[in-house]
């Protein structure tokens, strides 16, 4: 390369044409992952025709997390694939350390691909606790992440906790496609919400499939709004006197909630009941709902969810339950659980994540992923 001199004799670099500056190749993409879900990271890299980057994450004898990145990440776009599992705390620390390692190594951008965001259910104030999702969001932004790709957040409002862009992908197109192609006579089905809190999601499925809707309501309901919130001090008693409150007035107490008996709003007799939710972890509520659906005449019971965490002895409970089939995506690894319960089926969503990465890297619109029902493999 020849260097040019200006009139003052100083050296200046040669001019670059606009096409050279605007062109972005796949060599600028580096995909790395932690220990949470290496199979998903390999599938995404394979779909994009890339090699998984050289990053090793391990733990010392005192359980400290060590991250070693063997390849250069200077000036490159880094995509860290790390989901949440039953080992959520280690998953988070691995992600934060990997992001900070890339930041201090002068990476151009660092995108966190987190199919299941840990602590997403702790997105509201409970008693005298805190909103853990907001704390986690602040930690991720501070670590160096410049973008987040996730899927089916427990509450969409969690995106507001982040100071960086968040793309909340949807797994519903894959689940809808499974219903249409893998459930025989799905036209004779009814979409079921196991509690009123899931009614909005169930209604969306029912409208897209042109099916009926049923909602289970009663004492089995465990909505977040029913949890006791003890942030406020108890009202003053008759023995206490203040300058602003009279003893005779007092503060009215909230009436105690009395839940009605467990009932089903909707007709499920002789139909296939399909329960939908965003997460399956503690399955007792699903098992109880399936028993009630069968008692009310449902011929089959399916459970569809995006994230299959399936903690504790959930596989055994599902195997012994009246549920005929459980369908989840591979946002969380559950191969061991599938060995314990043959009813669990898995839908691969790696193509959706790969397409999202490709579009973000090429600065293309993401609305296509929310507008179209299916993706061609």
UniProtKB/TrEMBL annotation:
* Gene Ontology BP annotations: 5-phosphoribose 1-diphosphate biosynthetic process; purine nucleotide biosynthetic process
User: Which SMART domains would you find in this protein's record?
Assistant: Pribosyltran_N
Q: Show where the Ribose-phosphate pyrophosphokinase N-terminal domain sits.
A: 29-144
Which GO molecular function terms does the record list? ATP binding; magnesium ion binding; ribose phosphate diphosphokinase activity
Which GO cellular component term is one of those annotated?
cytoplasm
Q: What is its EC number?
A: 2.7.6.1
Question: Which key words are in the record?
Answer: Nucleotide biosynthesis, Transferase
Pfam families linked to this entry: Pribosyl_synth, Pribosyltran_N
- Return the annotated region ranges for Disordered: 1-22, 222-249
Listed SUPFAM superfamilies: PRTase-like (SSF53271)
Which residue intervals are annotated with compositional bias (Low complexity) in the record? Answer: 238-249
State the PANTHER family in the record.
GH23275P, RIBOSE-PHOSPHATE DIPHOSPHOKINASE FAMILY MEMBER
The entry assigns this protein to a family as follows: Belongs to the ribose-phosphate pyrophosphokinase family.
Protein name per Swiss-Prot or TrEMBL: Uncharacterized protein, isoform D
